[in-house]
Design brief:
The structure is a homodimer of 340-residue chains.
Chain A: H1 11-23, E1 27-30, E2 33-39, E3 49-56, E4 73-79, H2 85-94, E5 101-106, H3 109-124, E6 129-134, H4 155-167, H5 172-184, E7 186-192, E8 212-215, E9 226-229, H6 233-247, E10 255-262, H7 268-284, E11 288-289, E12 293-295, E13 305-313, H8 315-322, E14 325-327, E15 330-332, H9 335-339
Parallel strand pairs in A: 3-4, 3-5, 5-6, 10-11, 10-12
Antiparallel strand pairs in A: 1-2, 2-4, 7-8, 7-13, 8-9, 10-13, 14-15
């Protein structure tokens, strides 16, 4: 196991220490708890709180999006494991600014169960809570059973739009409706070329042949839908985009943002080669492509591979996506001013 | 060879196609030449031009820093190979806004030779040119022979400060002096855990044992200074920081920015674990640490490993580092407004 870590059991805590050492002027721990990160930006009184939670090992998901214009708080568990309901409840309480809290998180059993408990506890204390569950991974369940799909890189679009809605002082119902629409308009397909190693386990999460690529692999190494011999970037992109476009047909008059996400060990050059093909496929259909996201947004530590996300825009989502945001891993000036 | 590419010989061109597809509203090709990228932001008349050049395979170095407040132009060669003097000369001409051009680039034989030729040609056409060569890699040559050192990730600090100086309408001599001071104040030490594969070669750039780490490895796989058995993150950081601090002693009253740079396949979590230790070492010495840079700034495609850069600040360099910049891979709001 060749990882730049100290004791495996300190991996999550020391990552958080690094984030605080680097960005302690913008984010802070909740009462010295190295599993709960809060924004330290000024908040308008009465703003809806926006929080998430999930396992560690996916940076920038989730901690990297805590700041201004996106998440107010995030609690993380061990690598690939949900944090406890108790920590979620503390975070929700810390992120209630008087108008309730939206819990926006990926569709995983532990996270759902713990958030349900935490929200019940907080409701009893008088904090209105809503949840919206991200289900963007097309490969993880067929059409018609979208609510069984996992949440992967597309959740970043939901964080961004819901965070902007909250900053515009929309109500809890309105922010929740924005998050739901963002999830409904988002599709992701991924492919893995190599596994990662969970520090405390010390062994690869799955096996894949030296000349193979697995389509539809989850970001924790969940089994995909097809294993192929390694193919060209264009062939791979065609498969990923093909699956997305069957699930969410697009045509002229549609406008989208495309995210090409590296899973941890994929060179940026390769991400741009994939983006180039994805954008071409969309343009050939007459779809407008706007505000690209290319880089590492949701990783599996040192897993090699890539995911492609298509986020269908309407006027509201476009404005919210373009709103300013400032977090350790996501900075956005108002793009509308520049490009519209 | 498991890479998400098409034909190896199209790797550089298709990467550029992806960059243009994504950021064509902010950067542009020079006359449809897929090796020369120019900023498409408005430029104040009389601003000094700032350009660089070098081999491909290091994104975000170099192309990612073309935009507003950093580089005006960049030309790239094949993977790990210098572009030609002819392309450099075209780029310099395109980036002369009436006050001359600073060529700021890493200390590699091909780049130096070709820039010398290009600058001669441009001077003959009446364009004042200066060059400043980045030599931040401590491992590549001992103290006293700093001018033989390679340029690695620290060049991003020089791009940022010289770009800001040019934007403040400083003269060619003044911008060159800023770049020279930035280089003089920058030290980098890297370590590699795995090699990368040059697409057209198809074989790893070097061999390293499954339980080994090579200290001082260059970003093209140039031989390092020591091979160790794999160690903890803290032990590795101590070695890298130790070498830097012997070369550039720091103490109370000193202020620095620290960059922890992933070489391409290093999880962000590990980069933060290293940053945490580096910041602690500096704080223990009474050194102030400001404006961290953690992420992938200069890579070797899918090489695993990390480099640490320490950039010693004075008031001028701090102001210039804090100035706004907007490029595809580097966005900065004015940090001084936020944090001073």
């Amino acid at each position: 196991m060749k990882k730049i870590i100290n004791k495996p059991e300190d991996f999550v805590k020391e990552t958080m220490e690094g984030i605080i050492a680097a960005y302690g002027d913008r984010v802070k721990l909740y009462r010295d708890d190295f599993r709960i990160l809060l924004s330290d930006y000024p908040v308008k009184p009465g703003k809806v709180g926006l929080v998430t939670a999930g396992g560690s090992g996916h940076l920038p998901v989730f901690l990297g999006y805590v700041g201004s214009g996106m998440l107010d708080g995030c609690t993380v568990g061990n690598v690939f494991a949900s944090p406890s309901a108790t920590k979620m409840a503390k975070m929700i309480q810390a992120c209630d600014f008087g108008s309730g809290v939206l819990c926006l998180f990926g569709n995983y059993g532990g996270d759902k169960m713990n958030f349900r408990q935490a929200m019940e506890d907080c409701e009893l204390e008088g904090i209105p809570c809503r949840s919206v569950i991200v289900t963007d991974d097309v490969a993880s369940s067929p059409a018609g059973l979208e609510n069984r799909r996992r949440g992967v890189a597309g959740m970043v679009y939901a964080f961004k739009c819901a965070g902007a809605a909250a900053n515009r002082m929309m109500s809890l119902d309105e922010v929740s409706a924005v998050a739901e629409k963002a999830v409904k308009n988002t599709r992701t397909m991924g492919a893995a070329l190599s596994p990662c190693i969970v520090p405390e386990a010390g062994v690869p999460t799955f096996f894949i042949g030296k000349d193979e690529v697995e389509i539809g692999m989850g970001i924790h190494g969940e089994k995909g839908i097809e294993v192929h011999k390694m193919m060209t970037a264009d062939e791979l992109t065609d498969i990923l985009m093909g699956r997305i476009l069957v699930d969410m047909p697009l045509g002229e008059n549609d406008e989208v943002s495309v995210m090409v996400n590296g899973l941890g060990a994929t060179p940026m050059e390769e991400q741009f080669i994939v983006y180039r093909r994805a954008a071409q496929i969309l343009k050939d259909k007459g779809v407008s492509v706007w505000m690209p996201h290319i880089g590492e947004y949701a990783t599996s530590m040192e897993m090699a591979g890539v995911s492609v996300t298509v986020f269908k825009l309407d006027n509201q989502l476009k404005e919210l996506l373009a709103d300013p945001a400032n977090t350790p891993f996501y900075t956005n000036a108002n793009r509308l001013e520049v490009s519209l």
